[in-house]
Amino acid sequence: MEQTPMTASETTTWHAALHRLQREAQPHALASVVGVAGSTPREPGAKMIITTQAVHDTLGGGHFELQVIEAARALLAAGETTTRLEAFPLGGRSGQCCGGFVHVMIESYSGAEMTVAVFGAGHVGQALIGLMAPLPWQVLWLDSRPDAFAPLDTSQPRLTCISSPMERIDASVAALPPGAHVLVMTHDHDEDRRLVDALLARGEHASLGLIGSTSKWASFRRRLQEAGHSDQLLATVRCPIGIAQAKGKRPYEIALSVMAELLSLKPDPVRRDHRGVEAPRLRQVFVGDSDSHTP
Questions:
Q1: Domain co-membership, 204 together with 136
Q2: DSSP string covering 5-25, please?
Q3: How far is it, in rounded angstroms, from Cα 286 to Cα 35?
Q4: Are residues 148 and 97 in the same domain?
Q5: 60, 114, 145, 188: which could join 42 in a potential S-S bond, CB 3.0 to 4.6 Å?
Q6: Residue 37 belongs to some domain of the structure
Q7: Are strands 47-50 and 28-37 parallel, antiparallel or unpaired?
C-alpha cells in the first residue's frame, strides 16, 4: 500500500502527544479507528493525534490518512470541541487499492477555555496563579521587576512568565492576545494606573479588573477621565476585584474571591441539541452488517 508523506509529521506516540497537549491546553484532535470491514491499513483501536502543525502516530498512511488529517484540521480551524464519526470507503472516497471500509471517530479539542493575563507577581498574584494551575486556561504572568519570578515555581503547564520593564508597558499590553481576561495587581500604584490607561486605549480584552479599594479607583478614575477615557469605557473596569460577598484580606482569601469572579466570567460552552455521535450511527459501526459496507 502506498504511503503519502505528511508534512510536520512527528514520531511521538499518540498517547505521549495527547498527555502533553492536554497538559498544555493546546488545540488537537484524537482520531481513532472504531470499525473496519474488508482489507484495511490498521485495526480497530489504532489512534493518531493531529494538531494544526503536526501529526503524531499513524492510521496507516496513504490518501485515507490524509483525509482524516484534513477532516480533523477542519474541526480545529472552526474552534470546535466536538466528536465526529467519519466513514472512509477506501476504494471510493480514499481512492486506495485496499478496497476496505473504515469508520474513524474524530474527537477535537479547541484548546484553553480562556486566557488570563495577570500583571503582578506579589502575594495575591502568587496565590492566584496557584489556584489557576489545574484549570485548562492559558495564563500569562507579567511583572516589571527583573527578579520577580526568580524565587517562584513557574514550571506549571500553560503558564508563561514575562519580565517586562515598566517603560515597556505599552509593548506588553500590545502583545496580549485578543480576548484575554486581564487583572492588574502590581506592586506600584503608578504602574497600575499606567497599565489600566494602556489597556483601555488598546481594548480587545474580554474583561479588566484592578486590585484595590473604592478610594483607589476614585482617584484612578478621575485621572483616566482627564486622559480622555469615557465614562462608558471606565465603567467596564472592575475595582475592587473579586465577588462582593467575600470577606477577608489575606492574599489567599483575595485570590479565592478573584477566582470565583473569573469563573463567573468564563464563557458558556456551546450547547447543541445533539452532542457527540448519534446512537444509530454507532450501532451501524459496531453491530451493523459489515458486508453492506464493502464497496
A1: yes
A2: --TTEE-S-HHHHHHHHHHHT
A3: 6
A4: no
A5: 60
A6: yes
A7: antiparallel
- Write down the pLDDT at residue 90: 76
Look at residues 87, 115, 83 and name the one whose alpha carbon lies nearest to residue 101. Answer: 87
Residue with cell string 481512492: 95
> Both 257 and 279 in a single domain?
no
- Going by the DSSP 8-state scheme, the letter that residue 187 receives in this structure is S
How long a stretch of residues is the chain? 295
131 and 72 together in one domain: no
138 and 223 co-located in one domain: yes
Helix/strand number for the chain, H first, E second:
9, 12
Whether 1 maps to a domain, the answer reads no
| Chain Cα centroid distance, residue 282 | 29
Classified as helix, coil or strand, 257 is helix
Identify the band that residue 254 occupies on the pLDDT scale cut at 50, 70 and 90.
very high
Residue 242 lies in a domain: yes
Say if residue 57 is in the same domain as residue 77: yes
- d(Cα 116, Cα 162) in Å, to the nearest integer? 13
How does strand 28-37 pair with strand 101-109? antiparallel
Among 206, 200, 218, 211, residue whose Cα is nearest residue 241: 211
Q: Whole domain around residue 74: which residue ranges?
A: 9-111+269-293
Strands 138-143 and 159-163: parallel
What is the predicted pLDDT for the residue at 37? 84
Identify whether the C-beta of residue 36 lies closer than 8 Å to the C-beta of residue 103. Answer: yes
Same domain assignment for residues 140 and 75? no
What does the alpha-carbon distance between residue 61 and residue 111 come to, in Å, rounded to a whole number?
Answer: 26
Confidence (pLDDT) at 62 = 80
